[in-house]
Amino acid sequence: MVMSATPLESIAPPFLGATRGAAVVRPAAETRASFWPSLAVLTAFWVYVALSNLMYASTMGQSLKSVNVTHFFAPWDARLVQHLLLYPVLMLCVWGSLRLGWQPLWKRLPVQLLIAAGFAVLASPALALGEWIMGEGHGKSGMSMDKDWSSWSGFLNGPALSTWAASATSFLVTYGFGLALISGFAFYQRLRDAQLRGAALERALTAAHLAALRMQLSPHTLFNLLHAIRGQITWDPPAAQAMVVQLGDLLRRLLSAGEREFSSLADELQFVLLYLELQQRRFSDRLTVSVPAPAAAPRVWVPSLILQPLVENAVLHGLAGHDGPVTVRVTTDADAETLTLRVENSVAPGRDSGHGAGIGLANVRERLAVQFGERATFSAGLRAGEVWVAEIRMPLLRDGPEGAAQAEAQRRS
Hints:
Heat Shock Protein 90, two-stranded antiparallel ribbon, 7 strands, disordered N terminus
């Protein structure tokens, strides 16, 4: 059975795979994508080290010539070969160090120090080999390739040991800096990947939340309309049949709108108009509606089904509690940056209890908060004594869902 990696396991150290003991399996494409930047950083660091050592040796050699000391440092070409020989060793040691890890520290630290020392002690032999390759067998590295070290006392008492120790100390520090650099870069990559995954998860969560809110509207709308049709069946069957046809059209639009996060304002107004026409068939003697012509609406985008709960709320609470006429009016207003959507309905005198506490208005508030944050506002309340007004103020989206995504990115930044 293949077990998938968890989100935390999938952000393992990016340099050449996973940490030993963590059982982390990373996709080959992801491993390659993270390996090459790490390789480039380590290569650039080693090029800098090589150039620095060459420049230092050249500068010090020129200074020593002024006091008649010549050939104190190995030739530049031998030093260049030394760094070329040490480069694959550095790669192997860094790879082993990152793969080994540091936990538990008491167990890993001695091995890490052994790897570092192994790299450092090879620096002087690499220089001697570079001198030999470049034809400088009797160079100043202290370890010329043709020297006889059959006697340990000769090696220990001669200049070779001190030269070797000095070279090892210098390259030990260099290795430490290189390992710290690549470990820091690996940490940066993990942090960046974690942030990208976090943002992706947040977007997925937001999309799922909005989809759940849109799904919540479908049964709520259908429930209200079925009740409206049921009231017509008994005493006006032809009207009920016509309402069923209109309901079918409404449901098709509802399903289509429920699959989209944004829709055009014209489509929203057409949907609202169809819904209010259904309600007018039931309350033809009491309900008057006013909706802007969809064709004349501004060419802007709004969250799908954002007006539907407001007009449902207006019809339901406008007609409740009295037998007088009720007017439902929908208006839109757009300026350079803000779109205002307003739904008004007349109510019975003194009746406002529960008008703003329904599931539909809570849905609208939550959707605006998720999609626009503080850049959108929603207010609902009784005005002028007998008119209930629900008003949405949101950013003007002329570029469709792409514009909404850009606006959301600007809000997060």
